[in-house]
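Bench log, entry 3. Co-assembly request; chain sequences pasted below exactly as received.
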Amino acid sequence: MSVLDLILADARTPTGGYAHSAGLEQLVAGGAGVAEVPRFAAARLRTVASVEAAFAARACVAGDLSGLMTLDSELAARTPAPPLREASRRLGQALLRTALGWWPDDSRLQAYREHSALSPRPVVLGAVVGRGGGGPVEAARISLYEDAASVCSAAVKLLPLDSGRASRWLVMLADEIEDLAVRAAAASSQLPSTSTPLLDRDALIHATQTRRLFAS
Amino acid sequence: MPVESRSLRIGVAGPVGTGKSSLIAALCRELGGQLELGVVTNDIYTDEDARMIRGQGVLAADRVVAVQTGCCPHTAIRDDITANLLAAEELDRSHGPLDVVFVESGGDNLTAAFSPALADAQMFVLDCAGGDDVPRKGGPGISRADLLVINKTDLAPYVGASVETMLADAHAQRSGRPVIAGSLRGGPAVAEIGTWVGEQLRLWRAGELESVDPGPPAPHGSGDHVHQHA
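Structure output for the full assembly:
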């Protein structure tokens, strides 16, 4: 694991992640309590987060701009809820903006910023990891870890919960994240498309709420 | 991004309920005829501020955007400003570039101050109803924001507050930086603040506006020593 991987996984790196709960806020609004949180994080890892990890891994080795743009479209086709596409776009653009501050002369990232209207977070993450010399497994691992970490850190704000306990959930999920990262990076030419209709529905409801803390 | 291709960004910070949204709405009404304006609100729990400003009818609804801050209003204007920068840049891209974008912080405590990378100039809003000892307590915004606004002076007699004390304490804290006291409900305050905004825009376009960091809440060292943080 490189220092760049640590920087990308660090919530202190300014990429706007603190404003997103990975769907937990709406789950809690629907009545979920502390006990459901680690199960929710694990369920996301096996479904939507694995899909995103496969895209991050692929973006890492996507080559030129057209390769990234194809991944944009492929991931949009797997993200039916507009609020989730928008959340991913915002997070992707934030990371892209920060990464271009690191490498202002990177012509591929510049071109991608100029041409990509979607810029979903996993594709940006993969491209950035690749730019920094990392490989598909690293990109997938960061993507998966960040998904689970978003759930657990949002839980501390949404529920009566010791943050130490939330970090323990992440430790308990570590082996699974490792396995899923390897699997996501090894995905065959067919990218995964596990769907999560309840998350899509919840995202549509969440977007209409006027009292919410999180952007997604 | 080159200065010319974007709007001047003016931050509006201050505690909850002091009148930040009302001030922005009043400024939009005051300046909207001469300047192309946009607003980014940072709400803690609702998008009420954005809806309130839209509801005033002073700006087209799509010129007011709300940024969710995930319980971290302070982070969004200081430690990780990417969401706010992107929102301001999108306003410029879809409408402009605009002349001025006001960025309203989520009502926070006295230590909240904008990163100079987000706000080219910033004002801090207090009100008489919040207690006339607040300017004396100080803080980075009170002491070093480019403009301090003391709102709701019309309420002072009803809450036992002394506008004179607030002004004297504010001036003592601010080493000559401007203070405008008044009421957004009437009187010259809004026009005075509008003039200040126009002056910031003039300075910025002339390349003479230096974004000043109000800095950390408790300066290390002593006295009025101002730190230059990289």
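Chain A is about 70% helix and 0% strand. Chain A has a mean pLDDT of 96.
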